[in-house]
Amino acid sequence: MSNIFVISAPSGAGKSTLIKELLARDSALVKSLSITTRPIREGEVDGFDYIFTTEADFRNRLASGEFIEYANVHGNWYGTSRASLSQQISKDCDVLLEIDVQGAAIIRELFPESVSIFVLPPDRETLRMRLENRQTDSRDVIERRLKAASDEITRAVEYQYAIINDKLYRCVGDLQAIIQAARMKGMKNSILETFGKI
């Protein structure tokens, strides 16, 4: 039985770095690739970090009903392919979705057994520093991202877990612990089923 893990965070909280490290450590976990219209950033790989596409192509996919969830975030579209997610689940893989708070709410509704995790920055100033250090956004864009972060963080209460990304090794360890706990719960339920107890 596949586990679905949903990870959300405000822009600049470091979730992409965390997820790369987590995937490197856990071969039983696969990432569901979001399809996005945002420009590719330095160091990103098309087909590994995201599936990058044009707005016209995204709208065609949207019209054809391809997405199980989608949202416009900071002026760019992001969506999760329904077929791709179903295929990963059917292979009994544990699937990780890196999606925004809007998409996460939809996934939690469609998959009530999914495990949701919100990644928090240590504080507002650290988040500002991380956004500035990326050197990919103008001052105005950074301010918009910080405002959006304030709104997104208020929704952390909707998630089962919240972890603070202050030290990479500690935060990855926290993620691994949550994932392992979910797997152990699933294993327990599988054993109980053999005894007719579920």
Helix-strand layout with pairing:
Elements: E1 4-8, H1 15-25, E2 29-32, E3 34-36, E4 51-52, H2 55-63, E5 67-73, E6 76-81, H3 82-90, E7 94-98, H4 101-110, E8 115-120, H5 124-134, H6 139-153, E9 161-164, H7 168-194
Parallel strand pairs: 1-7, 1-8, 2-7, 3-4, 8-9
Antiparallel strand pairs: 3-6, 5-6
Helix pairs in contact: 1-7, 5-6
Radius of gyration: 17 Å
Strands in their spatial order, largest beta sheet? 2-7-1-8-9
Low-confidence stretches: none
CATH topology: Rossmann fold
> What is the architecture at the second tier of CATH?
3-Layer(aba) Sandwich
Strand tally, please?
9
How much helical structure, as a percent, in the residues? 40-55%
What do the pLDDT scores average to? 92
How many structural domains in the coordinates? 1
| Element-level helix/strand string | EHEEEHEEHEHEHHEH
The tally of helices reads 7
Name given to the CATH homologous superfamily? P-loop containing nucleotide triphosphate hydrolases
CATH hierarchy class name: Alpha Beta
Given helix and strand content, the structural type is alpha/beta
Distance between the termini: 15 Å
What does the largest sheet look like?
5 strands, parallel
Sum up the overall morphology in one term: globular
- The portion of residues forming beta strands comes to 15-25%
